[in-house]
């Protein structure tokens, strides 16, 4: 049996050059096609009662981060096609209405009028410490390199760099994109599942200290319990980052499933419930999206791999 887990982030009609949300018209096409081809269930219901879904062709719909447009644009379309999704929220981002750190980084570099980057953080390689930019393009190219680099370092160092960026580019206001708890309660009451996407969107696989991983897992769980009245069963690992220790600590914290981002289908016979793969869908041409939904891209890639 093969389960198709589809992952979305933002759904919004306005284009964004940095990180384009999915257009609501494309989102509707996706939901229409997915609900035609599959029985759509919530991943939590499936994992808890696999036996009862044995003879169905199953897909799940999931959203990461907790954007307000999920409520305004995605939820009405899901209601129209009568599908229920799972949404994974970053509790600090919800509490303070600030985006995730990758989004903050890109937004600040794009909008600041300060054409240099100058930090005293000595653990950073020199190429990331002192930069004067001749153009906005140079600055944005640097932002992409810095973001890629920050994904490779530990959580505490990354937080220091983010603080330094926010201090230097304080001429920019952060966009208010996130849902609040009332929004989230509405989705929960409508039958969607709310799970954890950690407390701060930390990349769990990069954290060395047990206690800090635990904090991310447990604090987000408690926050959701306080607001919604139940302990979430699912953890979606930010940026798909996890390791054996993260899985172990997730189990200890009481989670029943962990969600990765691997762009392939989930085979419950062979895939671990704490490494469940998801196929991300983007704002791209419909023919490509169709290939992703029917899993053709994966099959094509496999075939190419076999030929090598
Ligand atoms: Zn995320």
Distance between the termini: 28 Å
Q: List bound small molecules.
A: zinc ion
As residue ranges, the low-confidence spans are none
- Beta strand count: 10
Structural class of the secondary elements? alpha/beta
Residues in β-strands, percent: 5-15%
Spatial extent as radius of gyration: 20 Å
Q: Could you say which overall geometry the principal axes of the C-alpha atoms support?
A: globular
DSSP helix count?
A: 12
The helix/strand order is EHEHEHEHHEEHHHEHEHEEHH
Give the integer mean of the pLDDT values: 94
Structure in words:
With 308 residues, the protein is α/β, with parallel strands linked by helices. The protein contains twelve helices and ten strands. It has helices spanning 24-37, 43-48, 68-80, 91-96, 101-111, 136-150, 155-168, 181-189, 210-228, 244-252, 286-293, 296-307; strands at residues 4-8, 39-40, 58-65, 86-89, 116-118, 130-132, 193-196, 234-236, 257-259, 279-280. The strands form three sheets. Strands 1, 2, 3, 4, 7 and 10 form a six-stranded parallel β-sheet that branches. Strands 5-6 form a two-stranded antiparallel ribbon. Strand 3 (58-65), helix 3 (68-80) and strand 4 form a beta-alpha-beta unit. Helix 1 packs parallel to helix 11. Bound molecules: zinc ion. Zinc ion (ZN) is lined by residues 64-65, 100, 197, 201, 238. Zinc ion binds next to strand 3.
């Amino acid at each position: 049996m093969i389960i198709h887990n589809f992952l979305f982030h933002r759904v919004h009609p306005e284009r964004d050059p940095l990180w384009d949300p999915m257009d609501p018209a494309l989102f509707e096409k996706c939901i229409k096609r997915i609900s035609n081809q599959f029985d759509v269930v919530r991943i939590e219901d499936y994992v808890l009662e696999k036996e009862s879904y044995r003879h169905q062709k199953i897909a799940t719909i999931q959203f990461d981060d907790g954007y307000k447009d999920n409520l305004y644009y995605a939820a009405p379309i899901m209601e129209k096609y009568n599908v229920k999704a799972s949404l994974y929220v970053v509790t600090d981002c919800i509490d303070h209405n600030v985006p995730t750190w990758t989004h903050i980084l890109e937004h600040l570099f794009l909008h600041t009028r300060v054409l240099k980057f100058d930090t005293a953080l000595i653990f950073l390689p020199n190429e990331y410490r002192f930069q004067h930019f001749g153009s906005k393009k140079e600055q944005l190219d640097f932002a992409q390199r810095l973001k890629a680099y920050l994904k490779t370092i530990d959580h505490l160092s990354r937080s220091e760099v983010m603080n330094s960026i926010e201090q230097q580019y304080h001429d920019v206001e952060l966009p208010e994109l996130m849902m609040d708890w009332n929004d989230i309660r509405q989705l929960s009451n409508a039958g969607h599942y709310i799970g954890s996407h950690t407390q701060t969107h930390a990349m769990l696989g990069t954290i060395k200290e047990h206690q800090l991983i635990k904090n991310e897992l447990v604090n987000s769980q408690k926050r959701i319990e306080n607001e919604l009245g139940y302990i979430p069963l699912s953890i979606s690992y930010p940026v798909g980052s996890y390791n054996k220790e993260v899985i172990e600590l997730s189990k200890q914290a009481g989670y029943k499933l962990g969600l990765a981002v691997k762009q392939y289908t989930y085979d419950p016979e062979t895939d671990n419930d704490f490494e469940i793969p998801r196929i991300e869908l983007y704002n791209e041409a419909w023919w490509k999206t169709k290939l992703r939904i029917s899993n053709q891209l994966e099959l094509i890639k496999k075939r190419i791999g076999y030929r090598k």
